[in-house]
Amino acid sequence: MIYLYWRQHGQVFRYMVSFDWTISNLNVLFLLFVAMMPFLTILLAAAGQALFVIWLYVGIQVSAGLTLLALWKYATRSNRHVDSTLPRSWVAFVSRSGLIAPMLFAASAPLALWNPYASEVAWFGILPIVSLYRYHARREFESEPNALGLRSSGPSNR
Predict the structure, then answer these.
(1) Do 1 and 130 touch, CB atoms closer than 8 A?
(2) Which pLDDT tens digit goes with each residue over 96-132?
(3) DSSP codes of every residue in 50-104
(4) How is the chain split into domains, by residue range?
(5) CA 17: distance to chain centroid?
(6) Spatial separation of the C-alpha atoms in residues 154 and 138, rounded to whole Å
(7) What is the pTM of this model?
(8) How does 90-118 read in b/e, with b if 16+ C-beta sit within 10 Å?
(9) Digit-coded pLDDT (tens) for 77-101
(10) 60, exposed or middle or buried, with CB in 10 Å at 0-12, 13-18, 19+?
C-alpha cells in the first residue's frame, strides 16, 4: 500500500506549480499516515485477527487516501496550484483513481465482523483493481483529443 500511495503522491505533486500552508499541512498529515503503516502492519501481524487492529489499519489506510485526495482537490480547485492547461478530464481521472483504495478498504471493514481473515484477504485485490482501473482509464484518456485538437499522450508514468 505504501507503494500505491507513493505513486499517487508523486502523481499529485508532479502537476503542482505552487503551494501554500494548506497544501503543506495536508501533505504532512498524509505523510504521517504513511509513516504509521509499517508499525500497523507489524501490529497486525502480531495481533492476528483482532478486530480492533484490523479496523485501526483500515482507518489509517482510508485516512491516508482521503487526505491525499483532499490535497489534490484543494490544489486543482479553480487551478489554484496546478497548471491551468492541465485537462479537466485528467484532474477527474486522478481524483477517481485516488478514491478507489480508500473505498475498497472502507468496504473491507464490515467484512471483518463476519470473518477478519476474509477482510485481510480482500486487501490483496486493491492493487490489481487500482492498476486495472488506471490502465483502462489511461487508454481512454489517451484516445481523446486534447483542447488543441491534438492527440494527447496524457501525463507520462514518471
Answers:
(1) no
(2) 888 888 888 888 888 777 777 777 777 777 777 777 8
(3) -HHHHHHHHHHHHHHHHHHHHHHHHHHGGGSSB-TTS-HHHHHHHHHHHHHHHHH
(4) 2-143
(5) 20
(6) 7
(7) 0.78
(8) bbebbeebbebbbebbeebbebbeeebee
(9) 888 898 888 888 888 888 888 888 8
(10) buried
